C-alpha cells in the first residue's frame, strides 16, 4: 500500500511533525518514571519519620495534554500532505508521478497510520517494561494502560482519517487545518448552542424551568465528538474511574471505524474527482458551498444569541437573543462569502499570497 518512493516523498514533507508525534508519544513512559520517583520519595520520607505510608493512587494528569498535542500534530500532517499540496500548486506535479490517484491518496493515509501505530506501540512497550520493573505495578492496574493505548490508537486513526476527508473538499492547508478542528468539535458545539437556545426560549416563553432530562443527550453528543471523547477517556484513566466510560467505550470503536471505512471505500471516487482548478480556495467543490454557508450562518446565529444573552443578563429577552443572532449571522455570512472568493496560495519562503 505504501510505495517506497511515495514514502520518501511524504516523509520529507512531514518529517518534523512525524518526529514531533514520536516525542510527544514517548512523554508517557518518561512521566511514569518521574511518577515512580515521586512515589518512592514520599514512601521513604514517611518511613524516616516513622509515620504510616500514605495511600498513594495513580493520577497521571499529563495524559490529556499528550493526546491533545498528538491530535494537533496529526491534523498538521494531514494538512501538509493534502492542503499544502493544493496551496503551493504542487498537486499537478504529484499527479504526473507514475502512480494511480487512489494509490497516492491511500499512501498519505498509510504514513499517518503507520506513525500512530509505531509510536504508540513503542511507547506502550516502554511503559510496560517500566511498570513491571517498578514499585508502581502495585499501584496501577495494568488494564488501564491497555485500554488507554487501544482507545488512543483507534481515536487518533479516526481523527487523522477525518482530517484527510476534510482535505478532499478544502483547497488550502490553512482551511483544512481550521475546518478539521471545527468539524471535529461540531457535534458537541452544536448541541451546546442548540440546547441553550431551546432552554432559553422555553423558560422565557413559558416562565417555567425546563426539565433536566433534556440534557440526557449531552453524553451522546460528547461521545461522538472524538477529541472530547478521547480526553474524557484520559481523565477517567487518570482517576481510575472507568465506570463512567460506558457511553464512550462503544463510540471509541464505532465512530473512528465508520470514518476510516468511509475514507478507504471512497478513495477511488475521491481520487477520480480531484479538482485542481479551484486549488487555493476554501471549498473546491461548488455544490458544497451553499450547504457550508448555511451551516456557518446557523451556527453563528446560535452563538450570537447565546453570547448576547449572557452579556445582557439579567436583562436578556427572546428579542435580544434574536438580535444577537442576526448580527452574528450577518457578519458570518459576509465574512464566509469573502473567504470563499479568496484564493490562498503558499509561495514557500515568500509566504502566503491572496489572489
Automatic annotation (TrEMBL):
Regions that span the bilayer: 16-35, 64-84, 109-132, 144-166, 178-198, 250-270, 291-313, 319-340
InterPro entries for the chain: ABC-5_transporter (IPR053046)
Alphabetized UniProt keyword annotations: Membrane, Transmembrane, Transmembrane helix
The protein's name in its UniProt record: ABC transporter permease
Annotated organism of origin: Lottiidibacillus patelloidae
